[in-house]
Amino acid sequence: MKKILAIALTLTLVLALGLSASAALPAGWVTVNGTTDDQHKINADGSLSMYWGDPAIGANLTVGYDVSAFNNNYTATVEAYLPEKTIISGTFVTGANVVSVKATDPANGMWLYGYALKVINYEGHPAGTPDNFAAWGGTYCVIEGFDSLNPLAAACASYADLNIKAGDWNTIKVVVEGNKVSYYVNGALASTSDSVASSGNFFCLANNGDGGNPAFKNLVIKSNNGSVADVTAFTVTNAGPADIEVVAIAGAMIVALMAAAFVVKARKA
What we know:
The longest helix has 28 residues, at 241-268. The strands form 3 sheets. Strands 2, 3, 5, 12, 13, 14, 16 and 17 form an 8-stranded antiparallel β-sheet that branches. A 7-stranded antiparallel β-sheet has the order 1-4-15-8-9-10-11, with no helix packed on it. A two-stranded antiparallel sheet has the order 6-7. The chain has helices at 2-20, 241-268; strands at 29-31, 40-42, 48-50, 60-66, 73-82, 86-88, 91-93, 96-103, 115-121, 141-147, 150-152, 168-177, 180-185, 188-193, 202-208, 214-223, 231-233. Helix 1 runs antiparallel to helix 2 (241-268). By secondary structure, it is of the alpha+beta class. Residues 2-21 and 240-266 have low confidence and may be disordered.
């Protein structure tokens, strides 16, 4: 009996530790050379976080997936968390979510050399950064588009039309049809081009700058003609990380109490 309780206690404690720790990236996903596993974390609820760890560095963290099998004919949808303004070491740091398609291989920075859409909150940024609140439509939450690092104009009349929310999740959808790419943010067209110059085979999720928050969740990549099986990643479970950890820790405590009770009973006998 003692052995059984000891084994149960050990397994429950291991489970609790395992649920609170970060898991590895799913199979098929790669990172930019030079980055480490602890900078790309799978949270207990399944979401993905990226954090360089130094706000003074303009980080370009990326995870990428080779979508060659889709033959440039797919639709990807993902939820991206845009942090509120924060201050780290005296520097305003919000980070920017980036989704990039037709990107190059990991050795070349991936998202930088693709058709990329960046979602960023400029509120409270230091002097020297854009501050066009009125021209942006009465919002600091804006997008920036790039095709192989060449800036692109937004497709929306006003950034306010995109209803981007800081401190919350926003839905980004990208439709790839040959050399035509269209991005939607929260259901509204944000950026589009009929002749994309980028020609890589990677779909990328990235963080430009530091944030430390959960960055992406619930990614689904679907073939537009059904010829390729869906790719899903960073799917969030119904129970949040706090719920999972509480259950695991509570289980460990119950087993520990059972073991203690057994030992006391055994000594009395």
